[in-house]
From TrEMBL:
One of its GO terms (cellular component) is plasma membrane. Involved in the import of queuosine (Q) precursors, required for Q precursor salvage. It is found in: Cell membrane. It comes from Mycolicibacterium diernhoferi. It is a multi-pass membrane protein. GO terms for molecular function: transmembrane transporter activity. This is Probable queuosine precursor transporter. InterPro entries: YhhQ (IPR003744). The chain crosses the membrane at residues 18-37, 43-66, 78-101, 121-141, 153-181, 187-210. Keywords: Cell membrane, Membrane, Transmembrane, Transmembrane helix, Transport.
Length: 227
């Protein structure tokens, strides 16, 4: 018989379902794509960012879904898979640099420049990713312990606020030099706008996140609503 403490805890679906590996695969792909595109610094007038802004916020949308439906341990497992695959991507790029180039291949210097930038960015991305996603997942779960199935918006926005702040500060501190940011002013603009942009994107994406969470909760046979 469950104790009163166990009965008060939020219920989560089992990670062995058909939906969990699909979410982890999408999550991992988005992280790798965002780290590759982040090797290019981008400027919209005074606004300085990197190419990772295109898809990286979506990793937090998937992270929210994983944390809300499957719990912290399952979300952490997805984070570790994403971390490992990014590390593997960096290793594969470095090995490719030292493979003998074909006579017709003329892009070796360009490839090396991208990989060198990617290596610094992968360190920054992995550090920020681990910090930000862990904070994000932890906050979703902790807020859910108090709110149960109510106030989903508070879990999603609160976790995004904290997770993106931790991620952005760690990432930008390591990555700024790799994309050519050298002044303190540019760094502040880069970090602040990055955090605001990624947080704003997740707020805009709330209806989509709500819908995805609702669909998976409804179709996930092992999920029991928290009461």
């Amino acid at each position: 018989m469950n104790s009163p403490a166990d009965q008060q805890r939020p219920a989560y679906a089992k990670a062995g379902s058909a939906y969990y590996p699909v979410l982890v695969a999408v999550f991992t792909a988005l992280v790798i794509i965002s780290n590759v595109t982040a090797t290019k610094g981008v400027a919209f007038g005074p606004i300085i960012t990197d190419g990772g802004f295109i898809v990286f916020p979506l990793t937090y949308v998937i992270g929210d879904v994983l944390s809300e439906v499957y719990g912290f341990k399952a979300a952490r497992r997805a984070i570790l898979v994403g971390f490992a695959m990014n590390a593997l991507a960096a290793l594969a790029f470095w090995v490719t640099i030292y493979l003998p180039a074909a006579d017709f291949y003329v892009n070796q210097p360009h490839f090396e420049n991208v990989v060198h930038a990617y290596t610094q960015l992968i360190v920054a991305g992995l550090a920020g990713f681990l910090v930000g996603q862990t904070i994000n997942a932890w906050l979703v779960v902790k807020i859910k312990e108090r709110t149960k199935e109510k106030h989903l918006w508070a879990r999603l926005i609160g976790s995004t606020f904290g997770g993106q702040l931790g991620d952005t500060l760690v990432f930008c501190a390591i990555a700024a030099n790799a994309i050519g940011i050298t002044s303190f002013r540019d760094f502040v603009v880069y970090a602040a706008l990055g955090w605001l942009y990624k947080t704003a994107i997740e707020v805009v994406m709330l209806p989509v996140t709500y819908r995805v969470i609702a669909v998976i909760k409804r179709r996930e046979p092992t999920y029991q609503p928290a009461l």
